Amino acid sequence: MIGLGHYVPENVVTNDDLSKLIDTSDSWIQERTGIKERRWIDPKSDDTTSTMAVKASKIAIKKSGLNKNDIDFIIFATLSPDMYFPGGGVRVQDMLDLPTIGALDVRNQCSGFVYAMSVADQFIKTGMYKNILVIGSENHSGGLDKSTKGRGVTVIFGDGAGAAIVSRCEQKEKGILSSHLHSEGKHARELMLDGPSTGRWVPEIIANNDPNDQSYYPYMNGQFVFKNAVKRFIEVINEGLEANNLQISDIDLLIPHQANMRISQFVQRKFKLSDDKVYNNIMSYGNTTAASIIIALSEAWEQGKVKEDDLIILASFGAGFTWGSVMIRW
Ligand code: UT7
Question: Domain count of the chain?
């Protein structure tokens, strides 16, 4: 990875701000999730999933030292594209005024960035592409239920974007060492947004005119997701270590998907990692789904916490269920 960047909307929403809209409190949110505040797009701003992605991408490209025309492919991970179709990748190709390179959208929710990195790695290793722009961007705030009914979900999610330039590395022992991807679709309905979709078309929702219809807000079976998350995070980190004959003591930095601070802390305790070996920023941004790992990685890199030769592990778990890890020698 030769350049990273991130962008979050200016509008800060604190837990106290939320408690003015819904029956919740700063202490409940902090105790259960570790979140203090998140960024939500100000509807008056020009921020969208794609424009935030473009802002993050411009920083990543600049920091990579490449010319934007050196990019030969785009991979865009999001669950909140600007439009139902087409996806965000083509919007970025247009807004960055890139040549007619390919643009692929990844629909793997919280694991989106990990899946996207794995796809980029395969394209690079086969020799098909050299410099790939990999993006995670989410606009959750517009689609959350901001009444008390939605409080189990709404307080967690935030908006933001991150981008990485993944480039071919001549040294074999550096770069992405391996990636490990999993899914378990039987739990699809435990964390989902049901409609509008081809299972619940818009005319059907309108015809029902049901004031209690929650199907167009995200649903999460929180405790069930939590239990699965801690189990799968641990499994998939171990899988990455074993595949590379590494020990947990070899890790320089673990960047877990920022789902919930309590999940990250559970994983940290399980592996007996010191605080400086796990990067968390959920306190400031909430859970930004496909953007969370790349925003955290970009911040850690900016702060000098990612150094040459470091072993970095990215790990994720989310809707699907999907989970995965990426092992990187920086
Ligand atoms: O990123 C994708 C993967 N997502 C995750 O990994 C998230 C995993 N799950 C979680 O992080 C947690 O389950 C939550 C933070 C979502 C919820 O925490 P919890 O400890 O599992 O709470 P709960 O859903 O069991 O609810 C406990 C109580 C309930 O009240 P009663 O029934 O005990 O009276 C809820 O109604 O807390 C209530 N509650 C709230 N109270 C104040 C739920 N949300 C809120 C809220 N403020 N925002």
Answer: 2
pLDDT of amino acid 210: 94
Cα–Cα distance measured from residue 320 to residue 191, given in angstroms and rounded to the nearest whole number = 7
Domain limit, last residue, from 143, 167, 191: 167
Cβ of 263 below 6 Å from ligand 1: yes
pTM for the whole structure: 0.97
- Averaged pLDDT for residues 37-42: 98
Mark whether 110 is an active-site residue: yes
The verdict on the CB of residue 330 being under 6 Å from ligand 1 is no
Nearest CA to ligand 1 atom 1: 259
Concerning whether 260 is annotated as a catalytic residue, the answer is no
**Range of the structural domain that residue 30 is part of:** 3-167
Q: Is the CB of 287 under 6 A from ligand 1?
A: yes
Q: In the structure encoding, which two tokens stand for residue 66, read together?
A: 């490449």
Q: Answer yes or no: do 12 and 57 share one domain.
A: yes
Q: pLDDT tens-digit profile of 149-162?
A: 999 999 999 999 99
Q: Write out pLDDT tens, residues 290-316.
A: 999 999 999 999 999 999 999 999 999
Closest CA to 124 of 162, 166, 165, 163: 166
Q: What is the CATH number of the domain that holds 93?
A: 3.40.47.10
CA–CA separation, 215 and 193 (whole Å): 7
The reply to whether 223 and 273 lie within a common domain is yes
